[in-house]
């Protein structure tokens, strides 16, 4: 099973700042099979990024993804109030399609 | 509008059985796989398994193999998650979500549409 480790566990930033979230995998995967999700309290997760760097439909361009192999990042260029949420990465190259434990992005 | 609509919240006792559902609409149900994801209270997302409604090909996470059964009825565009004997530790919110795949091997584009979640509470 591929283990995904997200860091930091909690990130405290202010609106307008830049956020960089990390996802490290226990083994290499193709970028095609790395996705990022956002989950707000009491809501279902929402797909943000697929294929490591492609934005899903309707996702603002302040969200960007990058990386390859075992190290991937999600960057939010300028935080808006609605961006404070929990973010998860997921790999779908090898079953089980594991998720990271999440990074909570909170308002400083 | 493309959507997955899940069945309502359930309150059950330990040892009881349960089957929850996920109905797709607005797209060709057999063009996508349907995955199930568990979220225990205050915790993260756990991938349980995924099914192709076209032929019911199913893959389970080892953590959930033998604990749950995933099935689908393509004639009514509905996928299911069921338990034969619930435990208190099954208390969680369960989400379904769809994903594209090629040849049942290459699962790409992420889980792009999610259901609203079904909360299951198991308590004596």
Question: Can you give a write-up of this model?
Answer:
The complex is a heterodimer of chains A (108) and B (124). With 108 residues, chain A is an all-beta fold. Chain A has no helices and 9 strands. Chain A has strands at residues 4-7, 10-13, 19-29, 34-39, 46-50, 54-55, 63-76, 86-91, 103-107. A 6-stranded mixed beta sheet of chain A has the order 2-9-8-4-5-6, with no helix packed on it. In chain A, a hairpin with a 6-residue loop joins strand 4 and strand 5. The N and C termini of chain A lie far apart (35 Å). The mean pLDDT of chain B is 97. In chain B, the strands form 2 sheets. In chain B, strands 2, 4, 5, 6, 9, 10 and 11 form a 7-stranded mixed beta sheet that branches. Chain B has a 4-stranded antiparallel beta sheet with strand order 1-3-8-7, with no helix packed on it. Chain B is built from no helices and 11 strands. Chain B is mostly beta strands and 124 residues long. Chain B is globular and about 45 Å long. Chain B has strands at residues 3-6, 10-12, 18-25, 33-39, 45-52, 57-60, 69-73, 78-83, 92-102, 106-114, 118-122.
Structural class of chain A: mainly beta
Q: What's the helix count of chain A?
A: 0
Q: How are helices and strands ordered from N to C of chain A?
A: EEEEEEEEE
**Mean model confidence by pLDDT of chain A:** 97
Largest sheet entry of chain A: 6 strands, mixed
Oligomer: heterodimer
Biggest sheet details of chain B: 7 strands, mixed
Low-confidence stretches of chain A: none
Low-confidence stretches of chain B: none
**Order of the strands making up the biggest sheet of chain A:** 2-9-8-4-5-6
In terms of DSSP E residues, the strand content of chain A is over 45%
What do the pLDDT scores of chain B average to? 97
Helix content of chain A: under 10%
Compile the SSE list and pairings.
The complex is a heterodimer of chains A (108) and B (124).
Chain A: E1 4-7, E2 10-13, E3 19-29, E4 34-39, E5 46-50, E6 54-55, E7 63-76, E8 86-91, E9 103-107
Parallel strand pairs in A: 2-9
Antiparallel strand pairs in A: 1-3, 3-7, 4-5, 4-8, 5-6, 8-9
Chain B: E1 3-6, E2 10-12, E3 18-25, E4 33-39, E5 45-52, E6 57-60, E7 69-73, E8 78-83, E9 92-102, E10 106-114, E11 118-122
Parallel strand pairs in B: 2-11
Antiparallel strand pairs in B: 1-3, 3-8, 4-5, 4-9, 5-6, 7-8, 9-10, 9-11
């Amino acid at each position: 099973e591929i283990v995904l480790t997200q860091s930091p566990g909690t990130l405290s930033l202010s609106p307008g700042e830049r956020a960089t979230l990390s996802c490290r995998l226990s083994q290499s995967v193709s970028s095609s099979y790395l996705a990022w999700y956002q989950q707000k309290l009491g809501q279902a997760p929402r797909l943000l990024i697929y294929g490591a760097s492609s934005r899903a439909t309707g996702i603002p361009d302040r969200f960007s993804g990058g990386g390859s192999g075992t190290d991937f990042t999600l960057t939010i260029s300028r935080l808006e109030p609605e961006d404070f949420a929990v973010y998860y990465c997921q790999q779908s190259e090898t079953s089980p399609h594991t998720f990271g434990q999440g990074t909570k992005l909170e308002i400083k | 509008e493309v959507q997955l609509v899940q069945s309502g919240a359930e309150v059950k006792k330990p040892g009881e059985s349960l089957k929850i559902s996920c109905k797709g609409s607005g797209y060709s149900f057999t063009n996508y796989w349907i995955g199930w994801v568990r979220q225990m209270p205050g915790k993260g997302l756990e991938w349980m398994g995924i099914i192709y409604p076209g032929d019911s090909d199913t893959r389970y996470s080892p953590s959930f193999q033998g604990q749950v059964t995933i099935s689908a009825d393509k004639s009514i565009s509905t996928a299911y998650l069921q338990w034969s004997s619930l435990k208190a530790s099954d208390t969680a919110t369960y989400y379904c979500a769809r994903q594209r795949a090629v040849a049942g091997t290459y699962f790409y584009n992420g889980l792009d549409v999610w259901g609203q979640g079904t909360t299951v509470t198991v308590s004596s």
